[in-house]
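[Automated response] Your request has been received and processed.

Submitted sequence:
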Amino acid sequence: MAIFGYKQQLMSMTVIEKILASHSGRDHVVPGEIVDVVIDARVARDFGGANVVKHLEDNHLAIDDVSCTFFTFDCNPTGSDQKYAANQHKCRMFAQRVGIKVYDIDKGIGTHILMEEGLCYPGSTAVSTDSHANILGAVGAFGQGMGDKDIAVAWHKGSTWFKVPSSVKIILEGSLDAHLTAKDVVLNLLDIFGASTLLGNAIEMDGEAVDKLTLDQRITIASMATEMGAIIILFQPNKEVIRYCESRSRRKVEPVLADKDAVYKEVYRLDVSKFTSRISLPGKPHDTSELPEEKVWIDSAFIGSCTNGRIEDMRAAAAVLKGRVVAEGVVLKIVPATDRVWQRCLEEGLIGIFKKSGALVSNAGCAGCAAGQVGQNGPGEITVSTGNRNFPGKQGQGEVYLASPSVVAATAVAGFITTAETIPEIPEKREFRGPAEDLSKRKKEAASASASQRPNEIEGRAWYIPTDNVDTDMIFHNRHLSITDITEMGQYTFGNLAGYEDFAKKVKPGDIVVTGKNFGSGSSRQQAVDCFISLGVQCVVAESFGAIYERNAINAAFPIVSLDRIASLKLEDGDLIRLNFETGAIQNATKNIILESAPFSDVQMEIYQNNGLF
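Generated structure:
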């Protein structure tokens, strides 16, 4: 009897495990297992699409199923940058030649299009060069951002390998204050868990407070799974979501539910009645605080992005802006997530409210988040945004706070960070400060990485950077994303990392970089790996890696090693490090200290010895 009960428990699965099992031809999967997952929707965006095409053409690869394969042009839907325009044109020509559907510059954000067009629904799978493809967890689907090599293989095979993540459950109990928004909920979650506590886990949301969330609210929360370091945030679809997905996909939808005895790595119970209105301080989405009591004056504001570009977000902004005007000297940009949302704004009179307030309204797309559609902010410029990411340099050279649509709208009217309830009746005159008096000074972060050789044991000089959460914009800035020649990438490595701007000039071939937790967090850009290969760096050792970065490195045959006790190596810059990929042994040869890490998995070793995924 006990043995039978044990087998039952082993066969129970969480939502992510059920989806991956059903798409890999398996009855059951467990965390840590590597499976080949069939992908229902395979997507490349405008900046990653050109590289996907290049990989396919260079390797003479055909496409598995054009009906499941799509381009979405959302990062720069105006084609305002010549390199973006060239990449889009290349993708269009390829699409016409092979018969791929293009959701062009008039459609909006690709992940939202997948839901609107019924291409993703509860239990389905999707991959995209968008690092926020996990937003599809809002409808109970599995979505993942991946690098262009991964996407090219998915287009060719129709499937790709994936390591089954552990699952955690977050139960939201109590009642949320009426003035709080879904953005406040996710910023409170970031405040609690930070950027790496849940790193590499799939999160299931549960509880009475979750059941009441609308689809738009679920999208807001799911869109910031990446900033939490999680693989995905999955919601059990309620009746509203099921009706929406059935109407879009024109099929009967059966939500995937976790077994009652499913095993979770952790279960967290949180009282949402204790949540407060919050903002993210410049530089780190997880560095949140309550709204400041002192006045933080702003220069610009943005309402939109995949996080807050839905119709409910537009209505919330319009409710604040109606009958008011944007403060003198402040630029407010509003960009709906999709053309459908844009049309709803037009039908409901919201566009007129926005224009009368003095806002610039642009066509649907990523806009301010990607800095390519409605312009960037300049040095010293302070922006408040509804986006999900405010890494240094992401929206330009200024600083960016993250907040809800109502707070951003109220801030644009007041000229300083505030709420709709506290907008002054009489506009206040701005007090200008010098740069030294700015309230938003943030600590900079540093990091390093290394490259690959085919021997299973390597040694090299250490670059020791004991810093956590080094993001991909710090490693390889988005201004260089149009580069496809790997030989040109090395010169830009760490060009946006304070104190390491000259890294590319000082690093020597064979060097090994050792750093902290969550290295490579952020976007799905392959260049953040390839730039180290370009320089001849041998390897990156870190306490942990961003999920997409880890995949990109493995697929590029670029050795990365996780070691959660790096401090025990007592490293200093210049120490000689020796690593064995087969045994997992890591040695500080200078100080004769030896530790053990996990050896390469079979998949990682196979790709490494094959000199890449292809």
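Summary generated for your ticket: The chain has three domains: 13-273, 294-437, 457-609. Residues 204 and 461 are 42 Å apart (CA to CA).
If you did not submit this request, please reply to this message.
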